[in-house]
Write a structure and sequence with these properties.
The chain is α/β, with parallel strands linked by helices. It has 2 domains: about 170 residues, Rossmann fold (3-Layer(aba) Sandwich); about 210 residues, Rossmann fold (3-Layer(aba) Sandwich), CATH 3.40.50.10300. It is built from 15 helices and 20 strands. Strand 6 and strand 7 form a beta hairpin. Helix 5 packs across helix 7, helix 6 crosses helix 9 and helix 11 packs across helix 15. The protein is elongated and about 75 Å long. The two termini are about 20 Å apart. The N terminus and C terminus are likely disordered. Cytidine-5'-triphosphate binds next to helix 13 and strand 16.
């Protein structure tokens, strides 16, 4: 990678949009631009109004070899927000201000850069630079989390002396780090090509009567993130999802179900044609023995007993039927996380289990982040600290790839 990044033609044929926003670090964007061009990329520069207060567009005009776009209504460029996004292999925003992060996170489009971002379907890399207290402000952190959850690569600023004279985390990441992130984003990741992955997600709902059901707090975010990660890495996905407010990722075959029974049927139907099953759904363990056809009336009752019966354990059932499939389960625990997870790994005959403590602050059901320990049947263990679910999805896929689809590699820590 280092050799690749240094090679003079490493970015030949790539077209990048460099967004420059109004930070004192604007002058460092000149070095980034030169390095991108030295590596063979063509670069279109978009400057916000704030950026032009620090440096004139002329510098970037000359060094990029293209006219800098500063205005959505530029007389020289027809609909620059569309043409720039369509032609870009990647968008790099360096330096990115707190104001830019907020607008990008919320989808505000009041200048050419933010408007273009809404049209961009290529990788987006953001290198923030700002004062330390701004970077650690909860609002900024929230915007960064929102962007990362959507797949935008947001680099961490570096610790060092800032324009204010203070030493804090806020410096634009070093040029080499910015370039490495661009290379990583452009490198096609196709390590899941050829895999057909069956992913389950979300809760199930078990009807009591026409208006009530038993369910759980699962949002579907983890399973949807896994489906998106498999697609991004070249695999095919069948996503079987219980009720969820989320929009399925593009390119994924989606089957919507409601009950555990329907989920079992849909998964059974697709299991034999898949190479990997990742069971992220929170399946109800019990359902009402009888679903009454009319709404239950409370009239005259001071209490109500509901008779429940066990649902099928879908994961155990499919694992027992497997031919060559890799089977991955989740363990949602509130105590003795690892020992309960190990019991499920063994008891359900799984290759891997993703154990998570659903009570941990900042993670668990409904959250955008999660922490987990991935355990394999062969005794390997990978610890993943609290991270966006989309990133955890990649770590799970890495573990399945390394420990099940290829030769085992042993213990590692991912923080
Ligand atoms: N699972 C399943 N069918 C069920 C219940 C669970 O396929 N009826 C799967 C889940 O999708 C998950 C794994 O089994 O991948 C473990 O689920 P979890 O809820 O953690 O544990 P349970 O097996 O249900 O056991 P318990 O509720 O006692 O912890």
């Amino acid at each position: 990678m280092v050799d690749d990044a240094r090679s003079s033609a490493a970015l030949a044929g790539k077209h990048l949009v460099l967004g420059v926003t109004g930070s004192i670090a604007v002058y460092k964007a000149v070095g980034v631009l030169r390095a991108l061009r030295d590596q063979g990329a063509t670069v279109s520069v978009v400057m916000t109004r704030g950026a032009t207060k620090f440096m004139t567009p002329l510098t970037f005009d000359v060094l990029s070899g293209h006219r800098v776009v500063t205005d959505l209504f530029d007389a020289h460029a027809v609909m620059p927000h569309l043409t720039l996004a369509e032609n870009a292999d990647a968008v790099l925003v360096a330096p990115a201000t707190a104001n830019f992060l907020a607008k990008a996170a919320l989808g505000l489009a009041d200048d050419v850069l933010t408007t273009m971002l809404l049209n961009a379907r290529c990788p987006v890399i953001v290198a923030p630079a700002m004062d330390g207290d701004m970077w650690t402000h909860p609002t900024v952190m929230q915007h960064v989390d929102m962007l990362r959850a959507r797949g935008t690569v947001v680099l961490d600023p570096e610790v060092g002396p800032l324009a204010s004279g203070r030493v804090a985390q806020g410096r634009l990441p070093a040029e080499a780090k910015v370039l490495e992130a661009v290379h990583a984003a452009l490198r096609p990741q196709a390590d899941w090509r050829g895999q057909r992955v069956l992913v389950s997600a979300g809760p199930t709902q078990e009807p009591i009567d026409p208006v009530r059901f038993l369910s759980n707090r699962s949002s579907g975010k983890m399973g949807y993130a896994i489906a998106a990660a498999v697609r991004a890495r070249g695999g095919d996905v069948v996503l079987v999802t219980g009720p969820s407010a989320l929009v399925p990722p593009p390119g994924v075959t989606t089957v919507h179900v409601t009950t555990a029974k329907e989920m079992a049927e849909a998964l059974s139907q697709h299991f034999s044609s898949c190479t990997v099953l990742i069971m992220a759904a929170a399946v109800a363990d019990f359902r009402p023995r009888v679903t009454v056809s009319e709404k239950l009336k409370k009239q005259g009752r001071s209490e109500l007993e509901l008779a429940l019966e066990a649902t099928p354990d879908i994961l155990a059932m499919l694992s027992a039927k497997r031919t060559s499939q890799v089977v991955v389960g989740f363990a949602a625990e509130t105590e003795q996380v690892l020992s309960h997870a190990k019991e499920k790994l063994k008891g359900k005959g799984l290759d891997l289990i993703v154990a998570n403590d659903v009570t941990q602050p900042g993670g668990g059901f409904g959250s955008d982040d999660n922490a987990a320990v991935i355990l394999s049947a062969t005794g390997e263990q990978r610890v993943c600290g609290l991270m966006p679910k989309r990133r955890l999805a990649d770590e799970i896929l890495n573990a399945v790839r390394d420990l099940c689809l290829m030769a085992p590699r042993g213990v590692s820590i991912v923080e």
